[in-house]
């Protein structure tokens, strides 16, 4: 049985029609990134300190202490190996355990870099880099998260002492959720309403010390703790998401992050000549990183499901002969291959978004704020789209693995539990899509005023054509033409956005229209985000891509990505008149053909992710395909199997059996 499993994956690998090594480089982004990633993944996988297969069986306290041990080991190894920032960040990534380091490096440091003055950066960044202080990011409160302008915490300037007084005026104003806050962080960037001279001046970030650097006890006026156990076993419970109440805590004036707004010694508030949304900059940065993370989480789930589907056999045999690999069932392919294609799509759009973010950052530094709205819309929209799809996809992969997918040893339940809050943190996905919709409606109304759209909305400049065009697809092969596919996506997105803008104008106020039509607006926003992903994927496959057969495989995946969306949203494509029912049928026919073309390459396409068995953490997704023996070995290691007769037998099983025996004798 074991030998047959191993043979299956070896057979699968022998069928590949492309150069897997070259695809690994494409997936990584470059040879350099591949080398760094590969080396860091192996360092983590070979270090017993980073073992993670017992995580779901540990209680919260044990689990948390275990994470503290691992985080300390990460810092130690990074120092010992003299890792660069890039290497250290990959090392932390492959440790694959949410912990305070994520928030320290991922939000606290970026908040200071983005919103601190040069002097503030000079003071705080070395302390943070050497980890002489540990920081987190506290924006959300018990009563408000999405509505940042509704935050209640105050930072009142006291000109007498040249200090700010940080205060939580109500229970609902307690900071609630920040990762790393509950038990670890010594410092925090806290977002509060700036009050000076009796007037409010908006929300800004303030650096506050939370705990003593000598004995870690909370400083006076600070009530702090963990908010409690979260969804799933193991999963995000390794993180100390916390609460904090500030009771008139005093901090020096220069602890306010003053890059965009300065408070003088006299308490005068001087706003720089920049948009006030610059204070939301850390969120834009993190949303961009979340899009890249989505492709990692999705590809990990898909890797497990594809390998297992090649191993798993059900039905199809005559006379108890060899059964069919479940990967050969068209229904399995139609559920799995679009997810495989989405993993590649999100990888490429993530890389593009990184470029967009770098570009806008450069412009902002030169006081050019013109691309800020587009950067906000793209990061918000793509964060929303990719995390929602990924969360659903992990659950779909669990189902694709049948009963064994439900076991923690499949790796999928914990991956789902750890991933699903991505739909909420850094902005609830619906709230973020409504931001995209606001941007789209504005773009459409600017069009009417003769303004030329730029960036990702450039396609809307072709307004007349997009409103009238009818798809020219007359055969399944036509759906392999980039121009045919793009036109359908652009026309659908534009028509939905125009319909929303038109309908909003029928209400008494734009706000009333926006609120009433928010369901349609969310759909228009998704359609626009899908234009971005599809067009970036098409752009990618039109480039020169080295490696035998690599480009061909990516083209197949690109069209699977696009055509499965046409199928999924066929209602919208049809109701907007972008395609006809016959053309939808042709697209489906082509999709089926493409599934057949991916089939022999599926295992190699997930091998190209280059994941170690440690990172995958799955009995079902092992590289060698030795699924059943691993499942059995892991079952035997379960704490319930420590003893043959369970604890509790004497107390709770024997009395029941005795009672039943007595009753049956009656
Ligand atoms: C091994 C596994 C490891 C896992 C590790 C994972 C690590 C991840 C850790 C996750 C940590 C999580 C952290 C957090 O969650 S931090 C808190 C995040 N909070 C949010 O995201 C709040 C969401 N809310 C908002 O962003 C705003 O409140 C919202 C945008 C929704 C509304 O803001 P506001 O009321 O001010 O704005 P309006 O809607 O009225 O818009 C006014 C104009 O401002 C523009 N705008 C809005 N936001 C931005 C922005 N960020 N940048 C630029 N411009 C922005 C908006 O478009 C409006 O413009 P116009 O007036 O021109 O239309
Ligand atoms: C694991 C995790 C880690 C986190 N880490 C941090 C952290 O480190 N620092 C930090 O500051 N915060 C953190 N957060 C908090 C997070 O940022 C917020 O939970 C998030 O921004 C959503 O806000 P909310 O909880 O207020 O949701 P709500 O806004 O209350 O959402 C509830 C529902 O209302 C809907 N809704 C809200 N507003 C609208 C609207 N205008 N129109 C239509 N529907 C609407 C939403 O779609 C949602 O369905 C974390 C959260 C989680 C789950």
From TrEMBL:
GO BP annotation list: fatty acid beta-oxidation using acyl-CoA oxidase; lipid homeostasis; long-chain fatty acid metabolic process
Binding-site positions, FAD: 140, 179
Residue intervals of the Acyl-CoA oxidase C-alpha1 domain: 280-441
Entries under PANTHER family matching the protein: ELECTRON TRANSPORT OXIDOREDUCTASE (PTHR10909), PEROXISOMAL ACYL-COENZYME A OXIDASE 1 (PTHR10909:SF250)
A cellular component annotation (GO) from this entry: peroxisome
Catalytic site: 426
GO MF entry, a single one: fatty acid binding
Coiled-coil regions listed in the entry: none
Subcellular location per the Swiss-Prot or TrEMBL entry: Peroxisome
Cofactor: FAD
Acyl-coenzyme A oxidase N-terminal domain boundaries: 20-134
Protein known as: Acyl-coenzyme A oxidase
Family: Belongs to the acyl-CoA oxidase family.
Domain Acyl-CoA oxidase C-terminal: 482-658
Top-level taxon of the source organism: Eukaryota
